[in-house]
Amino acid sequence: MRGAVNVKSIIVLVIILLVGVLGVLGINTARTYMSSAAADTAPKNVLVKPLADGKGAVVSWASDKASMGVVEYGTTPASLLLRAVEAESVADHRVTLTPLKPGANYYFRIRVGEEVFDNNGIPYSFKTLASVEPTVTPTVAVPTMPVASSSAVSANACVIGATFNGKKIANSLDVIECLKVLPKTSAAPTSKPSACSIGATFNGKKITNGLDVIECLKSSKE
Predict the structure, then answer these.
(1) Can you give the residue ranges of every domain in the chain?
(2) 173 - beta bridge partners?
(3) Are strands 124-127 and 105-112 parallel, antiparallel or unpaired?
(4) I want to staple 150 with a disulfide (CB 3.0 to 4.6 A). Which of 2, 124, 176, 181 is the partner?
């Protein structure tokens, strides 16, 4: 009887030992598998690019295995309450955080499944760009020269350098237009201003230009 009891005790003890060994092996195997899975989905080369308007930022990273990540972020390391979730499982990750405050500090971490990844125990951080106010260039008002009426124009008023035709450019055409509207005097010759056309030489310099017309019109008013 005693021998039988001892054998049974030994068998029970062996079974307990086997169960314990198998349990330890199973736990280690599970840990190894989970560690391998976490290593495959662990974020690598985490980068942040703030948007130019100061109201957002793009967080990017890579992983050895396609996964779906979640960026948890906030304005303090202890309050990462905002979340931006990827739409699908990918190996090259890009998540846009918006809307954000311009010129503000933000903190974030990346969650993949139950695993949380950060910067060696502390959240990643970045600062948004300051908003740029559009510059307004003031418009300088250019005064316009009044166009003289035909009754107020005298021969001395038709000089080069004075604008007359309202086009804000003082040149020989202003003088021509000015001379055309001068009132005729009793001593004016019978020739008409229309005879002074561009293309006919008048001043004897063998060059037909605006000065010929000016000289012609002046002589017709004398």
Answers:
(1) 45-127, 150-221
(2) none
(3) antiparallel
(4) 181
Catalogue the long-range contacts made by 131-134 (C-beta closer than 8 Å, 24 or more residues apart): 131/53, 131/54, 131/55, 131/102, 131/103, 132/54
124 residue type, one letter: Y
**DSSP-assigned letter for residue 161:** T
Domain 45-127: state its class.
mainly beta
Tell me which residue of 109, 93, 89, 110 sits closest to 58, measured CA to CA: 93
DSSP E strand stretches across 26-123: 44-50, 57-67, 70-74, 82-85, 90-97, 105-112, 115-117
Q: In this structure, what token pair is assigned to residue 48?
A: 């942040």
Residue 156 gets which letter from DSSP? G
Per-position pLDDT tens, the chain of length 222: 545 556 667 776 777 776 665 665 555 554 545 555 578 899 999 999 999 999 999 999 999 999 999 999 999 999 999 999 999 999 999 999 999 999 999 999 999 999 999 999 999 999 999 987 666 676 666 555 554 444 444 444 565 556 656 665 556 676 677 777 666 544 444 444 445 655 556 566 655 566 766 777 777 655
